[in-house]
Amino acid sequence: MSALHAAVLESFKSMGWQYRVVEAMEVVECAFEAHHSRILTHAQSHAEAGIVSVVSNSAVVVPHSHYLAVSELLMRTNRELNLGNFEFDWDSGQVMFRVASIFGKNRADGRIIASLVHTAVAEMDRMTAYLLELTRASELELPVFDIRGLLAREDLLPAPPEA
After folding, report:
1. Total H helices, total E strands in the chain
2. Could you read off the pLDDT of 107-133 as tens digits, one per residue?
3. What spatial distance separates the first Cα and last Cα of the chain, rounded to whole Å?
4. CA-based R_g, the chain, Å
5. Highest mean pLDDT among 53-57, 100-104, 110-114
6. Residue 90, φ and ψ in degrees, nearest 5
7. Among 19, 57, 53, 27, which residue's Cα sits nearest to residue 39?
8. Which of 43, 45, 129, 158 makes an SS bond possible with 4, Cβ 3.0 to 4.6 Å?
9. Is the dihedral of CA 100, 25, 50, 17 positive or negative?
10. Dmax over Cα atoms in the chain, in whole Å?
11. What is the pTM of this model?
């Protein structure tokens, strides 16, 4: 096990997250109960490059009829992101969010690793609400569906935590 992967495991342990280690790979899998859905997440260590990559997966599988609209939704969202990006698997209809960080040799920071996981889960939870709204639209509604208006809706977002 690389020192980087050990840092990932320690970060998950210190956060109290229940996780599963994927055998023969430096991958940790975890599921989080978020506001809109259960978010499946995995963190992979790439020790040679010093990279930790965290990917969250949408519980919403996009029907083929909605691929173009979802692609526009993700493109418009990615344009506004500062960290990470949404991806779309055209073959399966799966939406993912990926975020990564590069660490120096033996310099992995558990707080940054936990922050990557929090970011991946929060972004996918936010996107889940938009995906649910968009995939509820009929094929006849799609040509006039207001994606910019959808992204402006604040009623779909969870209330901010109280101080």
Report:
1. 4, 6
2. 888 899 999 999 999 999 999 999 999
3. 40
4. 17
5. 53-57
6. -65, -30
7. 57
8. 45
9. positive
10. 55
11. 0.90
